[in-house]
Amino acid sequence: MDLVLSYSPPLNKKCSPLVLKDDEDVAALLAARSDSTCKIPLGVIVERTEVCAYEKSSQDSSDDTDGSHDGFHDNYFDVDYCDSELTDVGSSRQKLPVFRNVERTENDNGAIDPLLRLTGAASDEPVNVPTTEASDSSFRDGSDLHEGKYFNTKKDLKRKLSDIAMKGNFEFRTRKSNRSLWVIECIDPNCSWRLRVSKIVPESTKFVIRKYVGVHCCSLLNRNANHRQATYVVIGEQVAPQYVGVEKGPGPKGVQTFARTKLGAQISYYKAWRGRKHAHTLIRGSPEQSFHILPSYFHMLEKLNPGTVTRIEVDGESRFKYLFLAFGVAIRGFRYMRKVVGIDGTFLKGQYRGVLLVATAQDGNGQCYPLAWGIVDSENEDAWTWFLTQLKEVIGNTDELALISDRAPSIKKAISTVFEKAHHGACAWHVAQNIKNKFKCADIMGSYWSAVNAYRCEDFAGYMKEISHRYPRVAEYLENEVGFEKWSRYHYPGLRYNITTTNMVESLNSMLVNARDFPYVALLDVIQEKMSKWWNDRRIVAMAITAPLTPSRESEFRPRFAQSNGRHTLQLNPVTYHVKGGELEGVVDIFNKTCTCKEFDIDKLPCVHAIAAAHHAQVSVYSLVSPYYTKEYYVLAYGETIYPVGSQSQWDVPNEVATRVVLPREVKERKRGRPKTSRFPSVGEFRKRKNRCGKCGAYGHYKKKCNSQTGSTEGNQPTDVPV
Q1: 15 phi and psi, to 5 degrees?
Q2: pLDDT at 26 > cutoff 50
Q3: What is the pTM of this model?
Q4: Where are the beta strands (DSSP E) in 320-467?
Q5: Cα separation of 351 and 517, whole Å?
Q6: Alpha-helical segments (H) within 13-90
Q7: Which of 710, 688, 709 is nearest to 699 (CA)?
């Protein structure tokens, strides 16, 4: 292989490199170096192919579509020198030519002469930016890039350069790109900013900067507010940290503001929406990945939380159908709860939709106590039957159990099939909504709720008589179509205490309003995190209680204690007392814990008569309280801890679990337009509409009903804006 040294003289016009053939050529080179203010680097010709950065390659010029690049830039950044880089004669290290800001002149065809940007480097340290003060028409990109800097992947490099470009307010485009090479340049053809990276070795994934010029000389006219490097992927990666540890984070408009203020880029609403979605994927994983890791996730939950029950149901094609989750801590704690369970479902808003089913009890302090969670395709009889079958294995099936739900036919049939011993009650609030929707009689709701909460037969009959007198069809609907035993506290065949609605379930659904948009595993992570926090916070509260009862029951009990003073008590036998005084008399059995007022019987919390009887019998009133309301049960219910699964890299999963195939369910093709994220209102549920007056601009009335005397106020600001 023949190696020939060459150099290009520092002329204002293009010329071919001069070859060093003998001593006379070397002497001419030394003379030129001594006369010139710039260092003249050497080039090497290998097998008659010019490696020097100054020879213009016709082949590379043909790659440039607009033909506006000078020969120096094309050749210099299209050739990877590696071990045969240009070497400055006065330096002991191999390095690339350094660019200085010298007088800009134009050659015959109007392009800036590239040779005027070329100088040698006198020191041993490589310099990749101009060593003199930048002129008014040039600037540096402000980055920490330099030749020889490594990046683990090409993706990391692209992310870094996009960030530099947006913060530096310039754009670049790709000249060449393949699996092992990437050459980019400023979008201005007359700008000197260039970068060339390639793999360290073909088998490696690491990339190294081979050549880099970090100085711009482009015009401000090339600045574009709609930055080409501000893709939705880059935006999503930049804004992703704002979604860590939160459920909602900024919306699309917030992402637009972030891109404008932090990145200096104007992006459309749609790009902001896609960037937000990409950020969610980076933080919470993709929906498809969620199905893939679901078996491993459940395995880790069972391993770290003993007693936890998980189920995954798939169809014949291994596509996801249902899942069930009940933490062992909640299962063991249910023994300290009143045996009243509310069940309901709420729709999910993610790509694969579905319905989240919830079963929850209520602790002695009146707080939600989640028992089980499920995800199904829809609220149908098969889905509810499968979910309740799994729930039955967790909480059992006894006549003491009460299940409260809405009046959906699928739930009613599933409960009668699975829980044949339990008692089913209807949510009184849903019944009220149906009444208002069917009979348009909102003014009767006071009497209805009094009938719902009535403890005694005569009180219930009085309220129903009032309803029947004003709206006979409503009374007939409540008695025959719904049934008194479903919604009335007095007629309920089981024991539902003071729980008449499914508000405890609705509270859980409201808590997850933002997380319902997450992939399934991310949603379950939020549920686990919420429950872990609740168990810890309530354990701290329980341990700090000094009274015998839970805080809410103690506050309810004290007024009754005060009202019992002054009541006349007559002992009928060793355990039975007749209490007089007040609006209502009562006969109390302190052994069986009953009273004729029925409050003691249903709520299992001593009424005024029972407290007076306990005083007369010199018995502690707290001994008459159900243990479900005591501090002891409250502490035991939250005595254990719910542990998270940790990061996926730390999971220890058997091969048979990790290789289990769970494919995403098939979903219908989504209609065009913005996807719906809010549910349809339930029967009888109305949403208030904010009306704005076209005359005065205020909210709350129409133009026809406006009392303003100002006439038309076109362009005026509204005087009353709702909060």
Answers
A1: -155, 160
A2: yes
A3: 0.71
A4: 320-326, 340-347, 355-362, 368-376, 402-405, 423-426
A5: 8
A6: 23-35, 58-63, 71-78
A7: 688
